[in-house]
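Troubleshooting log. The previous structure file for this entry was overwritten by mistake, so regenerating from the original sequence record. Sequence copied from the archived sheet and checked twice against the printout by T.R.
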Amino acid sequence: MLELGIMVEGQNGVTWSLWRDVVAAAEDLGYTSLFRSDHFTNPQGPDKPSLALWPSLTYAAMSTRRIRFGPLVSPVTFRHPSLVARDSAAIDDLSGGRMVLGLGAGWQKREHELFGVPFPEQKVRYVMLREALEVVSRLFQNDDPAIFAGQYYQLNNAVLLPRPGRAGGPTLLVGGNGPRRTLPLAAEYAQEWNANFISAEEFHTLNHRLDQLLTERGRDPKSVKRSIMLGTFYAESEEELIGKLQSRGRTLDEMRDAGVIAGTVDMWRDQLIAYRDAGAQEVMLQWLDLENLAPLETIARDVLPAVSGA
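Regenerated output below.
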């Protein structure tokens, strides 16, 4: 079966009012999850309101009863992984075990420069990500004092107290499409791997590679959930779709090849089923038009039942 979640860009004008609305929509309409980006601003101006990550996740924990939620993903450049582990474990407990901690290397140079956050070169950021995953995993999983001597992060007999209420702590998600760096990290540390903006065919190839890497590490491939974040381009009718495509100067095939679910409800069903058949267990739908949540109700009613069957 295929689950459907919602993903929003927290830096793209999200305020408390908009966040409350999208949290309620995800919870009430039957979506399985709500994820958001962790950015200070967009790669290009003008800058827009950007709701801070951890307060927004605390609100989601307290305002919902069933959906999964979390960052997709949080750059390791922003915060020490010990602080991330403490905050995410507390929010996971507050929600009754529904927090998903997505971690990534970070990519957006502009926001780091604007706010004075160091932005090392890519190879350094990936070392930081590996070490952060190690730190977070040790703090979540070990009842005994943890020791870790990394190049960028260290633990010296550290114990996360109180211990996470969920065995092993929040679900740890590694996001990205890279076969040389990201997939090996997912095979080593993650309980969920999340791809983004690729075709169903590309997803199938990477999904198979992850199976191989997990088997090589002695892990059951079924122990890691497979999800993907996709863009959305929705039209209520084919006439509306033609007009929107003409205004964008793009074809349906171009959008789909770029990892965008595009078209009318019937078209959405077929595209999502293709991802399900490629091995995706959940699709996070990137929803940018937060001033218009009405289509999310239509999608939940007319698309979700069709794609969630076995």
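The two ends are 5 Å apart (CA to CA). Archived copy saved in two places this time.
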